């Protein structure tokens, strides 16, 4: 029975962003003297992981309907706009352009 619990816990952790990364991003955003509880990090970890899955699912569905197998940055930006996150779509597009420009 314990193995099943461990297995399901492992699957749960696989779908979440690493908590250290979430904590690091939170620290960069908050004032230097701010303290972040473990519960706050875990809550944020759950929220951002759910958000990423939500957006990725929408982008993936678009690709499926277009009979494509690969989700690209434009698909993610489209999904953000479709889901009502237009502000994020513009930010993502600018990031994608700046990244692609430096890679060439």
Automatic annotation (TrEMBL):
One example of the protein's molecular function in GO is: DNA-binding transcription factor activity, RNA polymerase II-specific
A GO BP annotation: regulation of transcription by RNA polymerase II
Q: Tell me if Electron transport is a UniProt keyword of this record.
A: no
GO cellular-component terms in the record? Answer: CCAAT-binding factor complex
Q: Which UniProt keywords apply?
A: Transcription, Transcription regulation
What InterPro entries does UniProt report for this protein, alphabetically? CBFA_NFYB_domain, Histone-fold, Transc_fact_NFYB/HAP3
**Residue span(s) of domain Transcription factor CBF/NF-Y/archaeal histone:** 16-80
Origin superkingdom? Eukaryota
Annotated coiled-coil positions are none
Q: Which SUPFAM superfamilies match?
A: Histone-fold
User: CDD domains, per this entry?
Assistant: HFD_NFYB (cd22907)
In terms of Gene3D superfamilies, this protein maps to: Histone, subunit A
Similarity section: Belongs to the NFYB/HAP3 subunit family.
Q: What is this protein called?
A: Nuclear transcription factor Y subunit B-5-like
Origin organism of this chain? Nicotiana tabacum (Common tobacco)
Name the encoding gene, please. LOC107782191
